[in-house]
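pinned: reference chain
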Amino acid sequence: MHVVSQYALAYPEIRFFLNIDGRTALQTTGSGKLLDVVIEITDWRRRTGCWKSAAAKLAGRTGRQCPITVTGMVGAPSVNKAGRDSLSFFVNRRVIGADC
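pinned: its structure tokens
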């Protein structure tokens, strides 16, 4: 489940379907919207207003724009989970971190 969830987060434009023991464990729409995947994985369907997306372009030491864009999603404190197991980090659609 964890591996398929990570792929679904990295590729929100692809529809994923995971069946475990005859039951649907995960199904994403493939809409290309990261929020849709986050809601499906976390099962917080009614809390869509609790998620915010963020994007930033980084500036170098010279003050010029760097060709790096950082994007992400964060949840409000009301959807907070204890522990780091629900954090996911990607670079160029590859999962990074110790818990991968």
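why pinned: The chain has two helices and six strands. The first helix runs from residue 2 to 10.
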